[in-house]
Amino acid sequence: MKVQKLRELSDDELKGKCEECRKELFDLRMQAATGELDRPLRLKAARRDLAKGLTVMSERRTAKAGE
Question: How far is CA 47 from each of CA 11, 44, 64, rounded to the nearest angstrom?
Fold first, then answer.
């Protein structure tokens, strides 16, 4: 997911998106552990998507604290 699209989301939508990413990451890790993972690169992409979402949340917290 593009960072620009994440920045356009509201705070609640962003939190929901991060929770979705966490669940997807967990599911992919379980598939990898059991040998059922068919696209290993999806694991890397899920980690990056979660990191992007958390970064945007952190930026917003910092901006609110600075005001």
Answer: 20, 5, 26
63 Cβ contact partners less than 8 Å away, ≥ 6 residues apart: none
Instruction: Give per-residue pLDDT as tens, 1-45.
Output: 789 999 999 999 999 999 999 999 999 999 999 999 999 999 999
What is the distance of C-alpha 17 from the center of its chain? 7
Map out the domains of the chain with their CATH numbers.
3-66 (1.10.287.310)
- Cα–Cα distances in Å, from 25 out to 20, 29, 30, 32, 61? 9, 6, 9, 10, 24
pLDDT single digits (tens) 45-61: 999 999 999 999 999 99
